[in-house]
Amino acid sequence: MEAYIQGIGVISPQKTFTGNGFLQDAMEYNDVNYIKCLEPVYGDFIDPMVARRMSRIVKMGVCAALKCLRDAGIENPDAIITGTGLGCIEDTEKFLGSLYASEEQLLNPTPFIQSTHNTIAAAIALKLKCNSYNNTYVHRGFSFESALLDSMMLLQEGSASNILTGGMDELTPNSFAITNRLGFWKEKTVNNLRLLDYKNKGSLAGEGVAFFALSHSKNDKSLARISAVSTLYKPQSADEVTARLSGFIQKSAGVAGDIDLVMLGMNGDPVQDKIYHHIMSNFFSPVQCTFYKHLCGEYDTAASFALYLATMIIKEQRVPAILKCNDRPVRKIKNVLIYNHFRNINHAMFLITSC
Amino acid sequence: MSERIFVTGVGIISAIGFDCAETSVALQGSKGGIGRITMLNTFYKDEIPVAEVKAGVPELSAMAKVAENGLFSRTSLLGIIAARQAVMQAQINDISSARTGLISATTVGGMDRSERFYKYYMKNNMRGRLRDIITHDCGDSTESIADALDIKDHVSTISTACSSSANAILVGSRMIKNGILDRVLVGGTDALTLFTLNGFNSLMILDKNGCRPFDEERNGLTLGEGSGFLMIESESTVKKDHKTVLCEITGYGNACDAFHQTASSPEGNGAYLSMKKALDTSGLEPRMIDYINAHGTGTKNNDLSEGKAIERLFGSSIPPCSSTKPFTGHTLGAAGSIEAVLCVLALRNQWIYPNLSFKQQMADLSFSPVTAFQYNIPVRNVMSNSFGFGGNNTSLIFSRN
């Protein structure tokens, strides 16, 4: 199973939607414990009358999706598949809040309607009048991965030629406050670009939307190929991770030496980052390794941001210095391995290849 | 790509029974599960009927064989109960003996606990017990089920509103066809919550008299809760283990109505497409479908739209058709899999279910649903429809093997 990436639409805390070039000037956020998306001018993509009724994540989702399709030169995809850990949480909170505030009386149904996890995929289909396959995955750190897997299956089955696939999660004041109480984030504020320098526990909260136009065949628009995706649920030990990863590499790329660049999901939490260091020293000492969560923050579908970076790196054959966590001789980048885990529960590996 | 998909075990818990045996008795007795609210603490207790699973957390925890430690949402408990039944019927003693996955579905996840949390949190954001919020996300219930049954090879969750668990069955089947897994536990679970009760009430689509699908006088849906799971296995796994097969999944189709966020198109375009796709994958002719378990929520909009789509696809020979939602209520994310389990029982026992509380044919439709329980009818192929908000429509076909 494989998929060619034909177009991208990414909204993140970096200038990924508009801006000059690929990570030319990384956004630096000082004294923060979360970073949020730089939102585009929605009016360029969505009728303001329609946008007014959409929540922030739906607007971001629809915008990124439309830009992605435009980029790929696809009018109407054969499938729309999304992955989101928490879905439209802003509207969920809004409806829950008003339910208690008004003691179940005279509730406005709009936030309820838009609280369902499939709202974004549905809003895109509605905008495109797209009657094709439509699905939404909602499983923590497997949400985007499952969406990708489904997409690759559809391409293999021959039931779709072009698919719009995306991962998205939004951060709200409440979702931050609650996860902060749960100890997900660093107690003191940080500078995002120095995320790995802080040794205390917790990470930096983030959010983002990343859409990919995927195709079953290669053409002159193809940016990169997703060669393999695999997930690992609750590994019991570092050895289990090592075994699975080595099997994955063997099946998809050959040997570890065939990997030209590694992208690791380090998020600044010393305990959660342990496994990445283990992977680095066990497999990839001589290989250029990178990380990315200082740019997007930690969230359920953060691996979709890594997939965006991997695609751009392959396309431009350039590794921005800001991503590097070691320094190895530059070589032609053919195979990029992404390893990401979410709270040490949902582990995922991707192999992205130049085409 | 040629693997056939067989159902080897099913599990169900809903307002009409804690397992398949109880469910079968209620079905045969035309005994619906809709009644007064007793479990939810809501303003609408005496006003809006629902189809509740009449068991609290202690009883559900015991049935689920998990510790009553305050860490499981009602959604998780319902899911574990149905999932265990399916694994047991499939006689799988060692789950790791083949590549086994779990694809569950839910719309509200652990909302029952989130509500408890939010009640205090909204007054002061340092309040609310954190253990009540950690079960909020949809993945939580799935991981509870996976951990209870030790399923590790693939774990995922789908949420496409009221077609969620039909899509779990569809994706699980395709994962076997694609050779990624040998067997998958597929289904869905949803508990009744204030969130959904008030949500559908704010849309003014809850029938105060209980749902009456396909009736001219229908006036909305009735919410239910529960869970349904199916163990599906590849043909080669079934052969290798000499398994008893309950039925085969022969068709599936997913399409998007792309008409409106909550309303279905009047001509039922998405419904037509999902049914058509399911027929196409199965290779069956419309006339070979012996029974349609309709989505049939009882809302003005759904039943008209679905009815029109059925007329368009089946023409003048519409197969016996009914909605079982007056039995179970509309169980949202669990509806697709609960109705899938009912379809498996229909195939196994040669049953067709009545559409309870039906009186008068819809003026806009040329057909009426089945109104009495039917025994000993040749039931070879059954279609099950599940349609959701956002136009997410999925149809499945189950066949006698």
What's the CATH first level of the largest domain in chain B?
Alpha Beta
Our estimate of the beta-strand percent of chain A is: 15-25%
Radius of gyration of chain B: 20 Å
Strand order of the largest sheet of chain A: 3-2-4-5-1-6-10-9-7-8
Q: What is the CATH superfamily of the largest domain in chain A?
A: Thiolase/Chalcone synthase
Characterize the quaternary organization of these chains. heterodimer
Q: Which stretches of chain A are poorly predicted, pLDDT < 50 over at least 5 residues?
A: none
Task: Give helix and strand order of chain B, one letter per element, not per position.
Answer: EHHHEHHEHEHEHEHEHEHHEE
Structural class of chain B: alpha/beta
Query: What does the overall shape of chain A look like?
Result: globular
Q: Hey, roughly how much beta strand do the residues of chain B contain?
A: 15-25%
Total helical segments of chain B: 12
Computed structural class of chain A: alpha/beta
Q: What's the arrangement of strands in the largest beta sheet of chain B?
A: 3-2-4-5-1-6-10-9-7-8
For the biggest sheet of chain B, the summary is: 10 strands, mixed
Question: Any idea of the CATH topology of the largest domain in chain A?
Answer: Peroxisomal Thiolase, Chain A, domain 1
For this structure, the CATH topology of the largest domain in chain B is Peroxisomal Thiolase, Chain A, domain 1
Structural commentary:
The complex is a heterodimer of chains A (355) and B (401). Chain A has helices at residues 48-52, 56-72, 89-101, 110-113, 119-128, 143-157, 173-181, 238-252, 270-283, 293-296, 303-316, and strands spanning 3-11, 79-83, 133-137, 162-169, 208-215, 224-233, 261-264, 288-291, 335-342, 346-353. With 355 residues, chain A is of the alpha/beta class. Chain A has 2 domains: 3-215, 3-Layer(aba) Sandwich (Peroxisomal Thiolase, Chain A, domain 1); 224-353, 3-Layer(aba) Sandwich (Peroxisomal Thiolase, Chain A, domain 1), CATH 3.40.47.10. In chain A, α8 packs across α9. The longest helix of chain A is centred in the N-terminal third of the chain and has 17 residues, at 56-72. Chain A is globular and about 65 Å long. The two termini of chain A are 15 Å apart. The relative contact order of chain A is 0.18. By secondary structure, chain B is of the alpha/beta class. Chain B has 2 domains: 5-240, Peroxisomal Thiolase, Chain A, domain 1 (3-Layer(aba) Sandwich); 255-399, Peroxisomal Thiolase, Chain A, domain 1 (3-Layer(aba) Sandwich). Chain B contains 12 helices and 10 strands. Chain B has helices spanning 20-28, 57-64, 74-89, 111-121, 138-149, 164-177, 194-202, 235-240, 269-282, 300-314, 325-328, 335-349; strands at residues 5-13, 100-105, 154-158, 183-190, 226-234, 247-256, 291-293, 321-322, 381-388, 392-399. In chain B, β7, α10 and β8 form a beta-alpha-beta unit. Chain B is globular and about 60 Å long. The mean pLDDT of chain B is 97. Chains A and B meet through α3, α5, β3, α6 and α7 of A and α4, α5, β3, α6 and α7 of B.
